[in-house]
Design a protein that fits this description.
six-stranded antiparallel β-sheet, 3 domains, two-stranded antiparallel ribbon, NPR2-like, GTPase activator activity, globular, Nitrogen permease regulator 2-like protein
């Protein structure tokens, strides 16, 4: 049995987003004028006797901030189906919007087995601040979830004053500077640092939503020194070391026993700041073909060096635990293997593109005999766009009626996407669709 040791995948150069760069702790941008103003922050909880209550709000003495609670009481502590979702409520009477991310933590330690809270941010109804503060609301909730699970930061009375101080500092810093660094002292001997940064419109686009089956890969050099790790938030400290160019977002979540949405949030931020790229999940059923960019690879010595280091079999051990010596990959073999991933020349029935799965390709080429890990070879090629994945798109040839699967088979949704949606192996789904005789297939 061959076992592989997974290592951090990093390509290219450049400072890591949380490091000390010339642009400052949080990145290269600052607010030219004033940061978008917050009207207030409101922390609400569900009390088992009184129902939804205000735990604390800032700034103190602001009647309008307190008044928002009475307008939004039912939504601030909503039904469980709305937990861990971002949403905003406009209150025209107060000319404001309330940005929320309600949370319910289930555990036997809590009365009735659940603790429910919501840290809401209040902004001007006509301001553009909503889009900038929305990620902060979710990030704040994620911090509080972690602090509550680890240290009972929200429910232990010994942290009450410190919680209020955190809210007040966050309110002042974000309103004046657009960023805040807050140190939370745990049990007098441990410090947890929270980082917040308002994020203006970046390159005129929004970061993509993260599919749990995508694989994040670093595109900036990252050396996980203790000094750098200390600067990360609690979640990032756990998640970033697991980004190795192999694990999907869902697999990282399983390894760390975290909610996949939290991992996706971290990866989305890294992608936003151009620290990681996202490549499709590796499957032996997939078909990969070389692109014209593979010829540029031939001339790029830095990429060649990175590739040879990344694609080699990391470690191999026999059944008795002894290490099996593996040959170092040669560039000539790597380049030939990339070129061999192509669409066959011969024609087939109905003019369809011939399909050779990676499993068939591995059986023919035997890359491991050359010390090359086919999984890493494909991921490196996908990341650098030397390869692209061909996808099979089913087209339903009968009336789909109200059948959701038949409706989805419209030539725009691939078999892989359908398989993920319906939790079935892509090869099995393709076989079932083909066997039914109700579908034509287009590969592109």
């Amino acid at each position: 049995m061959v076992q592989r040791q997974k290592t951090l995948a990093t390509f290219g150069a450049g400072p890591f987003a949380t490091g000390d760069t010339g642009g400052g702790r949080f990145g290269h941008y600052t607010f030219d004028d004033e940061a978008p103003k917050l009207l207030g922050i409101l922390l609400a909880e569900f009390d088992n006797r009184e129902g939804p209550i205000i735990k604390h709000y800032v700034p103190r003495g602001n009647d309008e901030v307190e008044a928002t609670f009475h307008f939004t009481k039912a939504l601030i502590i909503p039904k469980t189906s709305m937990f861990r979702h971002s949403f905003a409520l406009t209150i025209k009477a107060l000319d404001c919007k309330v940005l929320m991310f309600p949370v319910g933590i289930d555990h036997q330690d809590y009365h009735r087995g659940r603790f429910t809270f919501n840290m809401s941010f209040i902004v001007d109804m006509t301001s553009s601040a909503e889009t900038m503060y929305e990620p902060i609301v979710q990030k704040c909730a994620e911090y509080l979830i972690e602090l509550e699970i680890e240290y009972h930061f929200l429910t232990d009375s010994k942290y009450r004053n410190q919680l209020y101080e955190v809210m007040e500092k966050m309110f002042i810093d974000l309103s004046t500077k657009g960023e805040s660094v807050i140190e939370v002292v745990i049990d007098e001997d441990q410090i947890v640092t929270l980082y917040f940064k308002l994020c203006p419109s970046y390159r005129g686009i929004e970061p993509p939503e993260i599919d749990y089956h995508m694989v994040p890969m670093f595109i900036r050099e990252v050396e996980l020194s203790p000094r750098l790790i200390e600067k990360m938030d609690v979640l990032s400290q756990k998640i970033i070391p697991q980004i190795d160019g192999i694990n999907t977002v869902r697999e990282i979540a399983i390894i760390l026993e975290l909610d996949p949405s939290l991992v996706a949030r971290c990866v989305r931020n890294l992608h936003f700041y151009e620290c990681v790229s996202l490549v499709p999940m590796f499957l032996y059923w997939n078909t990969y073909v070389a692109t014209e960019r593979v010829h540029d690879f031939y001339k790029n010595q830095m990429e060649i060096s990175d590739c040879l280091e990344f694609v080699k079999i990391q470690s191999a051990t026999g059944e008795d635990g002894s290490e099996i010596p593996m040959p170092n990959p040669e560039f000539s073999d790597v380049f030939r293997l990339y070129l061999s991933m192509r669409v066959p020349d011969e024609d087939v029935e109905n003019g369809a593109i011939p399909k050779k799965s990676l499993e068939q390709w591995v059986a023919e080429e035997k890359p491991r005999s050359m010390g090359i890990d086919e999984h890493r070879l494909v991921q490196f090629g996908m990341h650098h766009q030397f390869l692209r994945k061909l996808s099979n798109y089913p087209i339903c040839t009968v009336n789909p009626g109200n059948n959701s699967l038949l409706k989805a088979c419209n030539g725009k949704t691939s078999v892989d996407e359908l398989a993920l949606t319906h939790n079935i192996d892509p090869g099995v789904l393709h076989h079932l669709l083909k066997k039914s005789g109700k579908f034509e297939f287009v590969m592109k």
